[in-house]
Amino acid sequence: GIQVEQSPPDLILQEGANSTLRCNFSDSVNNLQWFHQNPWGQLINLFYIPSGTKQNGRLSATTVATERYSLLYISSSQTTDSGVYFCAVGYSGNTPLVFGKGTRLSVIA
Amino acid sequence: SQTIHQWPATLVQPVGSPLSLECTVEGTSNPNLYWYRQAAGRGLQLLFYSVGIGQISSEVPQNLSASRPQDRQFILSSKKLLLSDSGFYLCAWRTSSFYGYTFGSGTRLTVV
Questions:
Q1: Between these two residues, B52 and A93, which has the higher pLDDT value?
Q2: Which chain A residues touch B41 with a CB distance below 8 Å?
């Protein structure tokens, strides 16, 4: 099956700093999503981005499908950005998403 | 609008007791439905998924089972819970026309 690797596993930032999270995957996929899991466990969909670049406020994501990686950029980080960021990928059709192990981000004031 | 409901939010159950977790989706028809579990640590493991009423695919053999009695209802069950069943259970859905997943708020299960 698909292998999904996220890096770094843990990241500590000072408030206001920028960061880049990386997701590598082992096969061609038609679905890629980035999620943020908040301290209460809720998984929030950040981006559906099987290819290309998207931006939403301070967050942006880029997926280079041909090279099998995706990047999540967080600019001007805030304490509310803390939590675990997951990358999940899947094939088209009914194949379920496969999750990476996540990057745990802590933003310190 | 489309929403997903999952309950209960937290549950403490003794070893050997039964389990029933329910997930329902509103505002869509014929969704794909998924059960994931997040154990200690942070990885999400797929347990079951369903592409239609009565159709269940199991990813991990264990003492859990799933059922889909109605189009927008997905139930996770166990006859006898084990300590290792403790974890955070998340239900998700997507439609056939859009591959993005939406997750429910989860059930935190502690087996004691």
A1: B52
A2: 101
